[in-house]
Design brief:
CATH class of the largest domain in chain B: Mainly Alpha
Largest interface: A-B, 91 and 92 residues
Strand content of chain B: under 5%
Oligomer: heterodimer
Distance between the termini of chain A: 27 Å
Structural class of chain A: mainly alpha
Low-confidence stretches of chain B: 1-8, 414-420
Number of domains of chain A: 1
Strand order of the largest sheet of chain B: 1-2
Number of strands of chain A: 0
Number of helices of chain A: 11
Helix content of chain A: over 70%
Radius of gyration of chain A: 24 Å
Shape of chain A: globular
Strand content of chain A: under 5%
Number of strands of chain B: 2
CATH superfamily of chain A: MetI-like
Number of domains of chain B: 3
Amino acid sequence: MSDDRSLRTPSQRAAWTATIVISTLVFIFLIAPILAIMPLSFSSGSYLTYPLPGLSLRWYDDFINSPRWMNSLKNSMIIGVASTLLSMVLGTLAALGLAQWKSRFKPLVLAFVLSPVVVPGVITAVGLYFFFAPIGLTGSYLGLILAHTALATPFVVITVGATLQSFDTNLARAAASLGASPLYAFRRVILPLILPGLASGALFAFATSFDEVVIVLFMAGPEQRTLPREMFAGIRENISPTITAAAVMLTTVSIILLATMEGLRRRNERLKGSTA
Amino acid sequence: MTATPAIGADAQTEVPLKRRLRRAERARQVKALALVLPLLLFLLFTFAGPIAGMLWRSVDDREVRQILPQTAAALADWDGKDLPDEKAFAALASDILAARASGTMAIAAKRLNYALNGFRTILTSTARNLKAVPERGTAKETLGKINPAWRERATWTTIKDASGPLTSFYLLAALDLTRNMDGAIVAAPPDQAIYRNVFTRTFVISLSVTALCLILGFPVAYLLATLPPGRSNLLMIFVLLPFWTSLLVRTCAWIVLLQSKGVVNDSLHWLGIIDEPLRLIYNRFGVCVAMTHVLLPFMILPLYSSMKAISPAYMRAAASLGAPPVTAFLRIYLPQTLPGIGAGSLLVFILALGYYITPALVGGAADQMISYFIALYTTETANWGLASALGAVLLLATLLLALLYGKLVQGQQVTGGMKN
């Protein structure tokens, strides 16, 4: 429909124009809030209004010199990295197993593995709150890492599973027939080929943990507050420009994650194109 | 060393070979399962177990039985028609003295107060004024004198109903139902009947957000699916960047935009459209706008993939057969996007049902969804039975919809496979 030759009638052209106009408005709706918050973090005033009274980096200074914000950033990193590693190990093993497993129970097992994504955050959080409190896992890093791993692993299973689906099992067989042990074949043949899938799984897992707030609200003690948790408290009390500085930094992390993801996708498509 | 005996050997080992193959296959399956097992065990501990525990709490009712054990035992064979006998009064008196001594009275009082407003006062006043276990035959009189509530049947049925070990009390309460003195299920008194309202509100907000996402997402998905890959990949960033941006950043951004001195109000004022700032946030409008923003990518992406699979040849065929564009769109294009519409709408609806953070931050008191009440009863008022029961209802609704979603997506994959 996009090439002008197929848009023959005026009504078709009008429909196409309407699509473009509406889509542009929706794109503005999607992007404008994220863009609008950015300049405010560079404001020299303490009110979140335009026009800016002047430019300054005082709110970034505020963020970096605040033990509260720095502690939350540190916590987000610790919990994010740890739960990414754990969910990568559990998720990749499970994806490898599910790819080979043939059973009529497989859809059921798959549904169970993916269910943490669907179940509302509050339900998981309340369950964990009751379950972890008596065994001393609330108000601990370990408790949060375990909970975030449960939320993140489904994404690893999905992304790694998708990569395995396009993986040619003959390659593994070829390696075996050439005398490679299963572990060696995995390390030298399978792993390099599914690495992009693993990387996007890791990105998804990290983003899930880095953005999670409901479970942290229920389970974190004052010591384990993460960046989103600190933002939640800040938004509730009163929005200071320091929050906008934090928001800009979080968005920067998102852009890096998104760019890496896009790079992986492009690389993957190029590889697919070269083998096809 | 010739070929002939080798062939003969092959023929002889044909059956064992089959068996060996089967054995190897079985070993492979066991190994595959062993790879999945660590995750299954992990999720049992960090996900399924905790949720099962929550569900159990919605029917578990042992506090009163533990704190007033003799009373619970004495009421076990009470038929509930008249006042219980002297034995039950004496048991209650001695239970109250024991509970007061051990300091556990407040727990029982809290549980009984859920079922009958004012029960806490009845228990504490009785505990305060009861000096010693009454003499044989006078417990009924003594308790009745301390608090006339003990002369009423309702007080006693409340204790009997709360004597566990299992109860339907919380689950019924979550649906604005209760049991009357005769054990029949009736509507809860109006001052306690708020949850049907909350569930309706949750559904209405989720439905509005889903409808908004569909209306806004459809043209965008169509544009992205129709443009040549280079341009659509570029535009896809507009969908993916919000998708990857933290929920809190986006919620915060909407507060900045929509508050009374925010960007939107300022611009409208500057344009001369309004004199007074509009109230755009901490109300239903704010909740719907922010939630639509958060969930729109979840609508666009499934729609996009279903539209991407539609061959443009169909539309061209329709046009060449003389169908006007509107007819071709309605009869040819739209039906083929239905699986995508279904999947996207269900996904958005499911995610919206459980929303907590956005309404909590940009909604007013009348916009809080069911998750808010579950959180409230868990952390603030510690009414864990009710929190769990509300959670059970929400979980049931979510799982039913997820089941439907699973069926839909699976069907899509099948038809997608057939098309290829």
